[in-house]
Design brief:
By secondary structure, the chain is mainly beta. The chain contains two helices and 13 strands. A hairpin with a 2-residue loop joins β11 and β12. It starts with 10 loop residues before the first helix and ends in a 15-residue tail after the last strand.
C-alpha cells in the first residue's frame, strides 16, 4: 500500500454533521475496477470509506451503498484503511439523506430491502432520469423508461421487447437482454467504463 499525504478538512466540509455508522457498499475505481467497501461516516457533504484499495487524491469514483443508493465524488482525503470523498447532493434527495442521517444520529435503524447480487435503486434515488433510449446492435432505437438499476444491470420498461440474448445499449452502458418482464426487459451489463467519470450519468 503506497503512502498518501493527509489533507485536513476544510471549512466547507466541517459545516456538515458527520454521522458514524457502518454500511456495506461497492465502488467503481477510476480504472473501471469494482471493489467492496464499507462506510465509516457520512455527512451531507461527503463520505468516509473503508477500503484496502488505494485511490489517488483527486480521483473521481462512483459509490453504491446498500441503504442509500448511488453517489459520485472526488477523493479529498486519505487515511489509514480508506479515504474520503466530497459529494454534492441537491433537491429532494438531499432532504431524504438529511432525514436518514438525522435518524441514524438518534440511534434509529434504517430498514434495508432484500439484497440481490447488486443493490438496486429507483432512478431518482440513483440520481438518474427515468426516460432514456434503448439501442440495438443494428442501430435501431426506441424510447424506454428505467424502472430500477444497479451496478450490474437494469430493469427497463419498453413497448417492443427485444429477444432474450439481444445485445443492447442504454446511455453509455452496453449489455444483453437476459429476461422479459411484465413491463419490459431485464438487462445485464457486459461492460463497465474505463473511467468512473464516464459513469456519472450512464443512462443520460
Amino acid at each position: 500500500r503506497r503512502p498518501y499525504p493527509m489533507q485536513p478538512d476544510n471549512e466547507e466540509r466541517r459545516k456538515y454533521q458527520r454521522v458514524a455508522f457502518e454500511a456495506k457498499g461497492r465502488f467503481l475505481a477510476p480504472d473501471g475496477s469494482e471493489h467492496t467497501c464499507s462506510i465509516r461516516d457520512m455527512s451531507l457533504g461527503g463520505i468516509a470509506i473503508s477500503s484496502d484499495v488505494p485511490i489517488d487524491l483527486g480521483a473521481t469514483i462512483i459509490v453504491y451503498l446498500d441503504e442509500f443508493g448511488r453517489f459520485e465524488g472526488k477523493v479529498v482525503r486519505a487515511f489509514e484503511g480508506g479515504f474520503a470523498i466530497e459529494t454534492a447532493i441537491s433537491g429532494p434527495r438531499r432532504e431524504r439523506l438529511q432525514q436518514r442521517l438525522e435518524a441514524l444520529a438518534r440511534g434509529e435503524k434504517i430498514e434495508v430491502s432484500a439484497r440481490r447480487a447488486f443493490a438496486r435503486y429507483a432512478p431518482g434515488e440513483a440520481g438518474l432520469e427515468e426516460s432514456s433510449v434503448l439501442t440495438m446492435a443494428d442501430g435501431q432505437s426506441m424510447p424506454c423508461r428505467i424502472i430500477d438499476m444497479s451496478l450490474g444491470g437494469a430493469q427497463v420498461a419498453v413497448e417492443n421487447r427485444p429477444p432474450i440474448g439481444t445485445d443492447v445499449s442504454i446511455g453509455r452502458m452496453t449489455g444483453r437482454v437476459v429476461r422479459h418482464t411484465e413491463e419490459g426487459i431485464g438487462i445485464q451489463f457486459t461492460d463497465v467504463p474505463e473511467r468512473a467519470t464516464a459513469f456519472s450519468r450512464p443512462f443520460g
